[in-house]
Each structure stands twice: as C-alpha cells, then as structure tokens.
Amino acid sequence: MKALLGKKFAACHIDRVESHYGNIMIRGWAAGLRGEDGVLDISVLDGKGARLSVYVERLVRDDVNQMFGLKEGLETGFHILADRAVLDTPEIYLAFSDGKETMKKKLRVNVHSPAARLYYTHFSEKWQEDYDLWIRRQGPGRREAREQRRQKFERNPLFSVVIPLYNTPRPFLKEIVDSVLGQTYQNTELCLADGSQGDEIGKWLRRHYPKEKRIRYRKLSENRGISENTNAAVKMARGEFIFFADHDDVLTRDALYEAAKAVNEDPEIDVIYTDEDKVNSSGTAYFAPHFKPDFSMELLCCNNYICHLFGVRRDVLKKAGLLNPAYDGAQDYDLVLRCCEKAERICHIPKVLYHWRTHPASTAGNPDSKKYAFEAGRRAVQAHYERIGLAARVENTDLLGRYRTYYEMEKNPRITILIPNRDHGEDLKRCVLSIQEKTTYENYEILVIENNSQERETFEVYGQLQKEGRVRVITWEHPFQYAALHNFAVKEAQGEYLVFLNNDTEVISEGWLEEMLGICQKPQVGAVGAKLFYPDGTIQHAGVILGLGGVAGHIYAGFPGDKDGYAARLVSVQDLSAVTGACMMTKKDVYLKIGGMDESFAVAYNDVDYCLRLREAGYGVVFTPYARLYHYESKTRGYEDTAEKKKRLEKETREFEKRWGGLLEKGDPFYNPNLSLKKADCSLRLSGEKRQGKE
Hints:
By secondary structure, the chain is of the alpha+beta class. It is 28% helix and 27% strand. The protein contains 18 helices and 31 strands. Strand 7 and strand 8 form a beta hairpin. The model is unreliable at 1-7, 112-126 and 635-639 (pLDDT under 50).
C-alpha cells in the first residue's frame, strides 16, 4: 500500500475529513502487519512531537482485517475528533505505533478555510491509496492480453482514435501513441492533426514509427484551435466508430477491446463511454477515479460526467455535426450532448479505461486555469434545451463545471399532496403548516388520509387544518396498508400531479414543488424524489440504490448533509432506479396507467417497486437535491420491532427479490459496480464483496 510511505510494519488510510460543529473530524484505518493483532496505537502530534489533545475512538473494520489477513473484530478503524484551535499549528502528524516502531504521516490543516478542509501532504483524493493499488490489478495481464489479441469477434469494426496536437511534449505524445498502438484490439487507426509551430512533431513521428501504417498524420497550415484541429483529425478517420482523446492522456491497453466486445454484444450501439481516472504528470500515480452511472441525460445536463473515453458511431456523428468552436473549452461537452440527442443506444462500460493526465495547465489538474470553459459548458447545456424545444434556463453553481436548470412551468397544473396519518397530530400539523408557510407554488391541495386514529387531539388538529380551504381529510378504515391506502386516496385526488408525503416531514426549500414539477412535467419522467434530511442535518434520502445493504438502501444515509458526495451526486439532479415514497411526485394519469402501487407490498418496498415498474414502462425516475425537506422517519408506522412486523418484512423482501431478482443480480444501472454495496458512501468495492452486498 502507498500508505506505508516507506515503512513495512503498518499500513494506514484516511477515509474522510470534515468540519463538524466547530471540530475537525478524521476517519480512517490503520493496520499493523506483524502478526494477527494488527491494532496500532494512534496519536496526533505537533511538529515537536508533543501529543495534541484529541478524542480517538476505535472502530471495528473487518474490511481492513480481511484485506490484510487479520482476525475479525479487530478495531483497525479510527475516528478522531479535535477542536479546530488544537490543530491550528504549523505542523501536524498522525502517528501510528505497534510498540516497536512508529510511522508518522504529515498533514497540513487549514482550519481557517470556510469548509475547514484538511489537505494531505501526499494525496488529496478519497481512498487514493487503496485505489492506486487497485487499478494496477485491473488491467489484463500478459496471458489475458495475448488472449484478447487472438480473440475472433464476429464483427471487427475499425476504430479511429482522433487526437489534436499542439506543441505536445514528446514524453506525453509517446505515451498516448504507444497506448493506442498497443491496444489488444488491433483493428484501430490513430488520426493526428498537428497545429503545432514547426514540423518537429511530424519528424519525431516519422523517426520513431517509420513503418507504422495505423498512424494517419496531417500537419495543419495553422493552429485553428482545439475544435477545428480535432475536426481535421475526424475528417481523416475511416473508422466505423470515432473515439476522442487528448494529446497528453493515456488509454489502457484493453480500452478498445472492451469497446469491440460491447459492440459485438449489442451491434446497435451508437455511443460508448467508459470510466476514467487521473494520472499525475510523471505517469507514476493514479487517483480520483470517476466510476460513472449508466446513461442519465438528467445528470449530463448537470455536468459532463461522460467525458473520457467517448466514442460515437460515424453516422451518428455525421447527424450530430462536428465540434463547434463557439464552445471551445467545453467543445467536448457540446459534442457529447449533441451525439446523445441523436443516439438510440448508449453504452456505458463500467471499467477505468482512460487516464486523464493532470499538470498545472490542464483542467484536470487545475480547474481554475480554464474558468472560461465552465461558462462555455453552461452555454452548451442551454443550447441543448433549445434544440429539443424545452423551455429552461441554465445557471452556473458554486461547483465549477456543475450546472443547475430552472424549468418553465407548462400551464399551472393542480398538485395533490397526499399525507397518511394515524394519530401523531402534532407531527401532521408541523408538516402541513410548513407546506402552507413555505410553499411558493399556489395551485395545490392537501389530502390527509385518516387511518384509525384514536387520540382526540388528532381530530382536533384535523378540524384546525381544514379551516384552511386547501386541506381535506378522507378516511381509510382498514388496517394500515401503505399501497392500498394510496390507491384508495388517489381516486379522491383532484390534481394532475400527485405528491406522496409522509406526515413526519417538514418543508425546507420554498420552491420544492416548482422544482419537482419542472422535472416531472417532462413526458419521459414518471416520478421525482426529493432530498431529505434528519433533524440534525444529516442525509436521510438522496436516492435509492438497488442492492445497497441487501435489497435496497438510501445512498449516503446518515452522512453530513452539507457535503457534495462522490462525484457531486448529492448536489446533482440525476436519473435513478428508485426514490423514496416519503416525498415523491408522480403524474396521476401515469400512476393509474400502470396500476398504482402493488398491494402485495403492504408496507415495505411498495415505493421502490412502483419506481421500477415506471422504468419498466419506459418512464424515468429522477432525484433532485433542490427540493429539500426534513424527514423524522418512521413516525407514521414505527420501526420493524415486533415479531409480526419482522415476519411481514421478510415476506415482502422475498416477494421483492422474486420479482426483481434479475435486476438485483445484474446491478443497479445508476450505481457503478466498482462501488461498495456494503457501505452507503460510494467507497471502493473490495475484491471479496459480491454485487448484492453479501459475502
């Protein structure tokens, strides 16, 4: 492990660092490698070696124990909490000792920054040290590479890799050229359009690759900019698929083999994209992997998450058009959007097949170096909406390269908010009052579904709420059955759109209904879910992931609500497999069309099942972080804490697994298979972890 930093007796890693109520919190693990008892002493030292006053909690980390062959149950994890003032010192070290030797890791802490972020001396990316080792084990070995070269596909399309050159440093040029020519899939060509000053690159290529017929090189009369230079390379290409790469990056040697394999499995593919990571300028360290979801146009309109490696069928590219210099800086984003608009089949290969090089001048290494590119990206998304005829406004966000869309409302449709309630009158009152006081959208009604309440105070609350004309109370006299209760209530709803809302919620964002409606009004969207917080500000719901923690779980549940999350997914609108019914908007006609909620799921999984049936019927399910509410969770029906409730949950779990077992086995399309299903934090999936999150 790189965490050893030259030491042999121990390994360590920092998982997460954050500001928390005026403190700095550090979480990670440290394992001794001498014998089975790998628990180390942990301390925080200043530059003089003096111990600083911090709180250290030890945690069991069986994933770490398994990694190093240690006994189960060892407390190799740690959680350090320190006051910011304590860490406000020039030098800080984490010290790990096994009683014989001590390993120190130097840290630099900026306690005065707004986010109070902690920066690592050697690494700045989450689980970097695990990842650098992990990625080196992923590529094909010599034997597998030979087998890939010998493989006889039914179809062997020519792949053209197009690269614009401009004063490219020779070491970088050699790496990218060799990475293309060294592909295990051999039916490739490399098209280079050179806008450099002088002919040195051409001479270098002729000297180093004198007999290489797969290289197609053209010296341009002048540097026309990245878009036109790339277009010149495209015009040289003869391939059935065109792949785009930058002149200082690197393809893994099996990148085009995996693309050829995908095309043979589905000959109708129009667009291909892969996962990627970053490599340092010397090519010695890999970090910041981007494990992407399958295609999501909603996410693509927030950020060019597709990026590298990107390939498109020649005839689709012809329909979409070449790169547009008007979007230089985000020309690839504009192209990806146009190609995805024209594509029928978009294939995501969930493997890191492209290394994006970082150096001071690159956007990868220094986003501030090309701020103009992010404004060009905003204009590219705006142009996308104009092409497809969708009335929307795109704005930049505080995150560079991340955009927010504001949709114009079509007409002024009525929305019915359905809230089940059994007693808990005060919770209901808080929920309804928060809607009435904070909601800026006017055309809505609230339908309270009374279900066997016993407390006099509850009915008094009903009376108070109904004095405001928007609230109606209807009665469901049967035992609590979430699906049947809502199927009954929908028939009473007057709105074109429905919002299923738990009584233990409280509105935070004033424009929550506009935000959800703007997305839900799209013809292809069937349901929209909100971002929900626990009262302490941690995440309760930011989307449902199939297989997470077993059958289905909430991503980032319990994590700080002010964080962006992995690949900024906590602050991005995105397609998902499912969202929670605690706050979900759907179209009434679509709800009725697919038969409402399945009443075989009395309490659990009915919302997830409904979302999956929506997707099965061709509708999208979308999460938005801009509709925000508190959720006090489970006050409506309590926890699964009785034998009867546990038995019912087990029955519904078996039914869900029976119905959706194929999808669970295949994996959630919007959650990369390289990410863990055991933890909700998008951490790296370890080698022993199966797709369903079970050993």
